[in-house]
Amino acid sequence: MKKILTAEDDKEINRLICEYLSSQGYEMLSALNGLDAVRIVRENTDLSLLILDLMLPFQSGDMVLQKIREFSDIPVIVVSAKSETSSKIDLIRMGADDYITKPFDLDELLVRVEAVLRRYNRNSDKQSVSRILTFKNLTIDVTAGTAEVCGKTLSLTSKEFAILELMLGNPTKLWSKANIFQSVWGEDYLSDDNTVKVHMSNIRSKLKSLDSGSEYIETVWGMGYRLIN
């Protein structure tokens, strides 16, 4: 049974989410504030998913996401009344896996939960293959799910790791945004979706922070991305 944490300060909404997902076979935990959400994720290493409201007391949802990404790659679905594209992009940049706008239907939430878990499990299964990939000063241990640059730990979200694994596994290939999205997220790509662009920007920034003297990923305008040999 997969375990899910709902971090929502509205007690009635929290209760409804927990009861509904429990009826679908999930084990549910709940938090009513940001501090408890971080603590519960830290203490429960077997958690499969976090449903995270942004408007939490003591510590806001975006701060919770930042804290959690320091020690866990648990999938996160953000729940918010904000529907602006900029808000969604900022949260994806911070490591969110999906975003759902209030008010929402519980059936829609269930579909998103199942989709995120399916993608995460698929990526985890890929990482079970025993192999190490290297490119320049970057090393990825697929088995352990770890990455290093110049011998220093490279902190990646599960999607960032999957993108680098994909590219290092095919180092001469030019990858379109659609190729990357379909391979990593397992869904059809929408032409106006900035998800891949945001993740690529994050990966580049993280690589640059540990190896400022090397360039790893090149943007081929109108075509996609490839490793710089």
From TrEMBL:
Residue ranges of domain OmpR/PhoB-type in the record: 130-229
Any one GO MF annotation of this record: phosphorelay response regulator activity
4-aspartylphosphate PTM sites in chain numbering: D53
PROSITE patterns for this protein: OMPR_PHOB (PS51755), RESPONSE_REGULATORY (PS50110)
Family annotation (InterPro entries): CheY-like_superfamily (IPR011006), OmpR/PhoB-type_DNA-bd (IPR001867), Sig_transdc_resp-reg_C-effctor (IPR016032), Sig_transdc_resp-reg_receiver (IPR001789), WalR-like (IPR039420), WH-like_DNA-bd_sf (IPR036388)
Annotated DNA-binding residue span(s): 130-229
GO cellular component: cytosol; protein-DNA complex
Keywords: DNA-binding, Phosphoprotein, Transcription, Transcription regulation, Two-component regulatory system
BP term (GO), one: regulation of DNA-templated transcription
Leader peptide range in chain numbering: none
Superkingdom assignment: Bacteria
Residues in Response regulatory domain copies: 3-117
Function summary: May play the central regulatory role in sporulation. It may be an element of the effector pathway responsible for the activation of sporulation genes in response to nutritional stress. Spo0A may act in concert with spo0H (a sigma factor) to control the expression of some genes that are critical to the sporulation process.
Name listed for the protein in its UniProt record: Stage 0 sporulation protein A homolog
Lineage: Bacteria, Bacillati, Bacillota, Clostridia, Eubacteriales
